Amino acid sequence: MANQPVIFVLNGPNLNLLGTREPEIYGTDTLDDIAGHLDDRARAAGAVIDFRQSNHEGHLIDWLHEAQAVGAKAVLLNAAGYTHTSIAILDAIKAITVPVFEVHLSDPHQREDFRHLSYVGMAAKAVFAGHGAKSYELALDVALQL
Ligand code: DQA
């Protein structure tokens, strides 16, 4: 329907393997399962989810720009490993006015030291981490209230 708020959900590298990837850390939900739950939740609130995954940093940057160009209401971003390395993604978040929410299945602060630094977190509006697939739902609920 026209004029429904659109929320981009952008997923970075290796998240296509959710379900089988280190399930003791990331759980057994697949990315499709997560997309399905978010879709149901967004529809119930009269919003639309645009759910994507890429293993390539530049795709995530292009999609952040696209979120701005199409007037998305918010972006939920699980940049995965790029969270901890990508100044280019930080710059892209700073270059747009769409609010970006950082999402993680695990809690990076409870893990290795190199995961404690988040470039995404330097520009994100809020961080939702450590609740498995529920982290996305919590972030969506807040984004829908904007
Ligand atoms: C992750 C946490 C990151 O540290 C890791 O590189 C990932 C997944 C998470 O959702 O818990 O790939 O973003």
From TrEMBL:
Query: What pathway does the annotation place this protein in?
Result: Metabolic intermediate biosynthesis; chorismate biosynthesis; chorismate from D-erythrose 4-phosphate and phosphoenolpyruvate: step 3/7
Catalytic activity from the UniProt record:
3-dehydroquinate = 3-dehydroshikimate + H2O
Q: Name one GO biological process term.
A: amino acid biosynthetic process
Give the gene that encodes this protein. aroQ
Location of the active site: Y26, H104
In chain numbering, the residues marked as site (Transition state stabilizer) are R21
**NCBIfam families registered for this protein in UniProt:** PRK05395.1-2, PRK05395.1-3, PRK05395.1-4
Q: Does the UniProt entry include the keyword Lyase?
A: yes
**Quaternary structure (record):** Homododecamer.
Q: Which GO terms describe its molecular function?
A: 3-dehydroquinate dehydratase activity
- What does the sequence similarity comment in the record state about its family? Belongs to the type-II 3-dehydroquinase family.
Q: Which residues are noted in the entry as substrate-binding?
A: N78, H84, D91, L105, S106, R115
Source organism: Sphingorhabdus wooponensis
Q: What is its EC number?
A: 4.2.1.10
Q: What does this protein do?
A: Catalyzes a trans-dehydration via an enolate intermediate.
Spell out the protein name for this chain. Answer: 3-dehydroquinate dehydratase
**What keywords are annotated for this sequence in UniProt?**
Amino-acid biosynthesis, Aromatic amino acid biosynthesis, Lyase
